[in-house]
Known about the structure:
Elements: H1 2-18, E1 30-32, E2 34-35, H2 49-52, E3 56-57, E4 61-64, E5 75-81, E6 85-93, E7 115-121, E8 130-135, E9 140-144, E10 155-161, E11 164-172, E12 183-184, E13 187-194, E14 199-202, E15 218-221, E16 223-224, E17 231-246, E18 252-269, E19 272-278, E20 344-348, E21 355-364, E22 369-378, E23 381-387, E24 392-398, E25 401-411, E26 417-427, E27 433-445, E28 450-462, E29 474-485, E30 490-499, E31 516-527, E32 534-548, E33 554-567, E34 572-580, E35 584-586, E36 597-599, E37 602-610, E38 617-628, E39 633-646, E40 650-670, E41 676-697, E42 700-720, E43 740-756, E44 759-773, H3 780-787, E45 793-801, E46 804-805, H4 806-811
Parallel strand pairs: 1-15, 2-5
Antiparallel strand pairs: 3-5, 4-14, 5-6, 6-11, 7-8, 7-13, 8-9, 10-11, 12-16, 13-14, 13-15, 17-18, 17-45, 17-46, 18-19, 19-21, 20-23, 21-22, 22-25, 23-24, 25-26, 26-27, 27-28, 28-29, 29-30, 30-31, 31-32, 32-33, 33-34, 34-37, 35-36, 37-38, 38-39, 39-40, 40-41, 41-42, 42-43, 43-44, 44-45
Amino acid sequence: xxxxxxxxxxxxxxxxxxxxxxISAQSVEKIKFTRTLSSPIIxxxxxxxxxxxxxxxxxxxxxxxxxxxxxKYQTEVKVLYDNKALYIAARMFDNYPDSIMRQIGLRxxxxxxxxxxxEFDPFNRMQESxxxxxxxxxxxxEWKRSDESYNAVWKSSVKIDSLGWTCEMEIPFSAxxxxxxxxxIWKIQFFRYIRRNRELSAWCxxxxxxxxxxxxxxxxxxxxxxxxxxxxxLQPYIxxxxxxxxxxxxxxEWSNSVKGGLDLKWGINQSCNLEMTLLPDFSQxxxxxxxxxxxxxxxxxxxxRPFFNESISFFTKGGxxxxxxxxxxxxKYNEVENQIDSNERIVTNPINSPxxxxxxxxxxxxxxxxxxIFNAITNKxxxxxxxxxxxxxxxxxxxxxxxxxxxxxxxFRNKSNxxxxxxxxxxxxxxxxxxxxxxGGSYYFKDGKFLVYLxxxxxxxxxxxxxxxxxxxxxxxxxxxxxxxxxxxLIYSFNRFVKDELYNPNDMGVNFVNNEAANNIxxxxxxxxxxxxFLNLQNSFTMDYSNRISTxxxxxxxxxxxxxxxxxxxxxxxxxxxxxxEKICDYYESRTRGLFYLAPxxxxxxxxxxxxxxxxxxLDGGYAIIYMYDYxxxxxTISITPVLRxxxxxxxxxxxxxxxxxxxxxxxxxxxxxxxxxxxREVKTYENAYSINYMLRNNLGVVxxxxxxxxxxxxxxxxxxxxxxxLSNSISNYNDNHDFTYSVFNIDLxxxxxxxxxxxxxxxxxxxxxxxxxxxxxxxxxYFRNSFDVPQSYNFAFKFLYHxxxxxxVKK
Length: 812
């Protein structure tokens, strides 16, 4: 073990010394803003007199694929402002206007289209920025560097003419926050992208090897005496739905509902923001990609609910927040069937706890001091039981729960910071209560080339709310330390992460492994300049080692090499190999405290590709294999995804994958005697996910998404897990059967119309069935033909949401 650590240390020291090669920074530009007394009309035609009085910014420089080269075509930008908004006009010259790519799509969607973008840092701290983009087809996108889900209401318009195309933007000051100074000094950047050439150019060229690109941007001049507007937005909604749910008799029970709610966004001042949702409805969000989970850990799903996506990144510091906990599946959902009599049936058993309301309050002052409070309350959840005489009773599956998260941060220049986070979960009644705290910070030194990161955390849980800190409480801790070089062609990092046995943030966050000390070293070499037939290349080496703290047994040891490259034809290739040379102690697969399984050694490899998306038909695909050479088992996965574009209005993505895990050993069950049974199984999985977007206009489109997931497991042998982690010989007198076939089918069909800025009309249809049987007798095609006969759930929903800009209404 000492030899291993010596090798790790030598590799790290070599990379550390190599990394002191510095990169010179470029001098930054200045851009003069021009105040206007008359607001230009946002129609894509740059003809108003106000534009003639403003300075023109030119001399863009290509940053991709050939950094520092002159762009193929010239770009000109003008900037105006008044007390209400910023105004940007851009002329993109192009000798072949008919060749300008202009696919239309949904807002914030990645499209095959030219675009112009404006990005700025209104705090001038080189930590945060706002990004506004318009494609040549007029589709808007926006995000913040710290929050990709950031949304704003603003205006834009484009025109294509004989000289190329033009773009006008109106970005109201109410759309973003900034500090209240008489003289505003912001960092400014412009981008222009020519899709058919894959050419990205910037007004202020950035060094690709630098972790902080904002320091290369221009600084604003003459941006003075801005009167901050009232930033108050109301979004009331009304939703009508018809829902069909299968009952125990495999018949569909229909119900309907009409409800309303309200979202509120209020810029209390230019440094502080409040967002609130009351009785929210998320009927229009995408369905989850449900899977059959054979592992010892819960499945973590993405959160598509808008309120829990936007402006949430600030609250994730310290890793204490997993938003899917809020409105989660009730903790006693699966216990209801065991609490009913033979003459009773389950009428309703809600699968999610209803959200009553939630709010986020956050802000940052001029000294870089930020505070945020997140709070959400979910209502009591109950299952309804009815007996043969139609008498009803309730079984509580989840109590009223209050989730609160508090974050405070002090930011310094060059992205350094310190923070403190606290998550608190309070449940009504004699239920588990939880409190978790994390504190840490990052420090960049050597002109931002190197980073030191520290994090410490403590959790405390109790099962009695009236004696919150009594002897029943358990306290756990964690810490994380990282040292990294983040600039240059060669970057590397060393990380050590420790969690004791009692650390548990899962009431509001998510955590898998405890009682473990993990170490990681990663060295990456990057080539950004085109060479031979390649535009870029990146390769990296990673080594991981971890051990159980209480027993000092090794729980992970692996080495991985990975490669990523794009050739001159814009074919992207990536892959890698990973090797685990020794057996490791898996303390979780056994599902039994203190008992481990000696997981096998393996060698794995993967290869993937993505063809040129500029063409109407592109193709993604890949192949991966894991070979467990202790018992000659293997897991193979192959995927193929055609990506089709028909004209500028229709986009299709047809994802298909198949995997077979042959000879895998895994947990089957625990007997009443405490003996843990493992099984040798073959698991096959098919997944088909098809999405089609048809756009009638930029603000009106139909989105279809269908997914069929099928997996089947067949067991051939069973073994006892022994105390030394090894499996016994095959058990001949074990008669239980754990074969399974599991399938999920989803349809999400929606019409989305943004009939006014920020105002939406949705019509949504959802269809879903989940089917699981305890055998593996049918193949994929037979099961697919018969599976649609199982009970299905339906949801037809109509949602109307209107955006009120109260500040603009008050002015009028």
